[in-house]
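Students often ask what a holo structure prediction actually looks like on paper. The answer is less mysterious than it sounds. You provide the chain, you provide the ligand, and the output is a string of discrete structure tokens encoding the 3D arrangement of the protein together with adenosine-5'-diphosphate.
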Amino acid sequence: MLQDVSNGKVRSLELSPRQRVVDVQFKDGRNLRVPVFSENQQLLRTAEQAQVPLTVRDEQREDATAGLVGNALLVLILLLGLGLLLRRSAQVANKAMGFGRSQPRLQPEGGPTVRFEDVAGIGEAKEELQEVVTFLRSPERFTSVGAKIPKGVLLVGPPGTGKTLLARAIAGEAGVPFFSMAASEFVELFVGVGASRVRDLFRKAKAKAPCIIFIDEIDAVGRQRGAGIGGGNDEREQTLNQLLTEMDGFEENSGVILLAATNRPDVLDAALMRPGRFDRRITVDLPDRRGREDILAVHARSRPLASTVSLADWASRTPGFSGADLSNLLNEAAILTARRQQSAIDDAAIGDALERITMGLTAAPLQDSAKKRLIAYHEVGHALLICLVPHADRLDKVTLLPRAGGVGGFARTVPDEDILDSGLISRAYLLARLVVVLGGRAAELVVFGSSEVTQGAAGDLQIVSRICREMVTRYGFSSLGPVALEGEGAEVFLGRDWIRSEPHYSRDTGNRIDAQVRSLATSALDAAVAALAPRRDLMDHLVERLIVEETIDGDSFRVSVQQWEEAHPGLPPVQLPRASSVLAGQPTREADVEAAQVGVQAGILNR
Ligand code: ADP
Ligand code: MG
Ligand code: ZN
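The corresponding structure tokens follow.
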């Protein structure tokens, strides 16, 4: 480089003393960076001699500026970070302050709405609600004759019967703003939040009156106050109190109708139910046969059904089904249809779907023949008694196809429409049911002997115990007399019934109840054995047939039984248990038989 400088090839030099380099710029445009000693006198001299301009970089100043820029950058980053943090915490604070605000969903305009015609099978409830809508649309008609607009309408009914659906239908039809909220959305960690949400909800609603507020599953906040062990739930109680005042406080909240739904009306606070608050209570019950048919029709609208399918038929085969169950049934059938690559839902698909829903998924068929034979005897025992015992239901089918969950097979009946609709179950019917349910165990006893019976009847025994107990303690069907010894539904509402869950009878009565229950069950088993033992040949024959066919239709099973009975006329008729302890005295005249059909709440069949 020194040579190049002396030879005049270099245009300029720039020395950076701290970095100990010199940047050389040649006349031909090249650049070169050359390391040098720190006190390079020779370079200075050579440059001076060759008259090449040499500049020295003022690195200290540069350093200073660089430092300044760096510091400024750091401060900026810090500030930015701080700002971000502040913003975040402000948002959180905002949220905390906004806790009290409710977020009711206002029914969107023009979205897919539910119409009254989508709700079927619950005619009365629908009519009542339609009247509420009229109230809102033309209040003058009512106010002119001094009628007050109802403040609250409570929809009560078992799950899946269409309460939420009905509310959505109102939203679609009412033509007024519709706020909806689930009651659980009021409940928060902090006391007072729910109450202020209620206030806020009503404030928003009053601004838009006339309108409807819908609170789903209101039992989440409307529970009895003061219930619960160790004091009540403060938050929930405050929320409820606020709700009570909003509904019927000093303020006149004209034009706001509160619609609420629950399936636990029994746990609601009494103050909520008094006139002036929920002054209308609409019961949405499980649909009857016609209702089920209508609901099926509603859900079949969007699905292609084969022309052979009779909805009326399926409605009569699905007693106790709610709207949600029926909708699920058709959906399962549609899924099966798609899986089978068919274009329309046929009877087979609906039948399989029904079985899946009621009995569980199918499992692989049994291989083990000894086990299969035992199950066959068990099921034939049930089925045979269904055909033989007076007052029993009609046999639908017997099958050996196992289901997931350990069910080896089943004998199914078609429930009696009369009983389901009227809700009246006679003592004879229950006795018949006891005998039928014990038929499985009885068949095992008759065929395999008392040491070979299996635990397969455990489920049956549970049903038997329940029926027997209810007969004795609730329906007055025993010699303990016409006394209700237990209330309906043994489950306690924690807190309210906890302290009172002690039985209401003496220990002596308790012992007698147990004895009655046992004697009922034993006599039913005796009756079942007495009916099956002389029919061993028939059982063998039916078991062979069941093992080969795996499923026997109820009608053809009944025909076999009838033919065999006609061929063996000498057999004693099958009788219901007549233990002395059971309801003393038998009715002698037809009229007495009628009178003995004591009214009992329905539902035992479905539980
Ligand atoms: P819940 O009474 O428990 O609020 P839902 O109203 O949510 O029951 O019903 C669930 C579903 O069941 C509905 O979306 C609908 O598809 C079906 N469903 C229930 N009841 C009816 C009915 N009466 N008519 C038509 N569909 C029904
Ligand atoms: Mg609901
Ligand atoms: Zn059984």
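Residues 490-499, 579-607 have pLDDT under 50 and may be disordered.
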